[in-house]
Specification:
Length: 317
């Protein structure tokens, strides 16, 4: 289990050292950071685009097999800019990494200099996304926290950032992660009986290339996070999204036929209102039409649905 402090050395290259264990990084290792070749032990490393509008993925062939050295290797990649400067390494964007420490649960605390606060709002989120998504790939790293000279990091809305994992940064299709925004949404999951809905608030960063309505549907399909006992999936987890669009206050949700398959005693009606109630929580949605492969099923009681709070209950304490 990793339980060391990594510090920025005084060397010109800014290599990172494990406290008590001097690790020499070879030029071969540095050259492999950001390679695009496909081999065994290939890890995607996330960098910030030169435009600072998205995160780019570049492959790295992992040389190390020891957990501590693997962590060191990825950290070194995150601090190494390519020779042609096609993108920016997150740890080389004007601030210093003062130390990195992991606890017995694999939670990694990264302390950075005060210059980190000078990053723009968009760039700072991209830097966080790149760091977290890169390092939490390792089995030895469960979560990442960034502190600024030992102090708590707050986001642009003065909310404490805290511990982060890859799930907090929604990846869009393709090889890029675009600008993130923090979404606070209310989702409706099933109770144990499968006959009622229970509201649960969720916060996550999502790609601004993804409509917020689609993000809500994706999160419902993903199900409850497990952090709150008594919540159960309200939508079949095998459901595939065809598309989600909103026009004139009506959100059109086009799904595949898996949505109609009942799971965990949750009826189709409960699944419908899980979607409807969750989407109507958004300010631009008043009604929801659910389509299955582009058509409204004959079994549906209506072509469009409005919020139904009669089916909602609360968690028993």
């Amino acid at each position: 289990m990793i339980f060391h402090m990594i510090e920025r050395s005084a060397s010109r290259r800014g290599c990172l050292l494990f406290r008590g264990v001097l690790v020499t990084i070879s030029m071969i290792l540095l050259a492999s950071c950001g390679q695009e070749e496909k081999e065994e032990n290939v890890y995607p490393v996330y960098y910030v685009s030169n435009s600072e509008t998205r995160v780019e993925i570049h492959s790295h062939v992992m040389e190390a097999d020891d957990p501590e050295k693997q962590l060191l290797e990825l950290v070194e990649c995150l601090g190494t800019n390519p020779e042609k400067l096609e993108y920016k390494a997150p740890f080389s964007m004007g601030f210093e990494v003062l130390g990195i420490e992991a606890d017995e649960n694999g939670r990694l605390q990264i302390d950075v200099s005060a210059a980190y606060r000078e990053l723009s709002v968009t760039t700072e989120v991209l830097v966080r996304a790149a760091i977290v998504r890169t390092l939490t790939q390792l089995p030895s790293v469960s979560a990442v926290m960034i502190t600024v000279e030992g102090n708590t990091l707050y986001d642009s809305k003065n909310n404490e950032v805290g511990w982060m994992n890859a799930e907090q940064f929604i990846n869009n299709d393709g090889n890029e992660i675009n600008t993130y925004e923090l979404a606070r949404v209310r989702l409706y999951f099933a109770d144990e009986s499968g006959t009622r809905l229970i509201a649960a608030d969720r916060e996550k960063h999502y790609s601004t290339n993804t409509p917020l309505e689609r993000f809500v549907v994706e999160e419902l399909i993903a199900g409850p996070s497990g952090r709150i006992e008594g919540l159960y999936p309200s939508v079949n987890g095998s459901t595939k999204i065809v598309n989600v669009t909103t026009k004139d206050g009506i959100c059109y949700v086009n799904l595949d036929e898996s949505f109609l398959t009942v799971v965990n005693n949750v009826s189709t009606e409960v699944s419908i209102y899980a979607l409807v109630n969750s989407l109507v929580e958004l300010s631009n949605v008043n009604q929801v039409q659910i389509l299955i492969n582009g058509e409204v099923p004959a079994s549906f009681s209506s072509t469009t649905f409005e919020r139904n709070l009669d089916i909602v209950t609360t968690l028993e304490k």
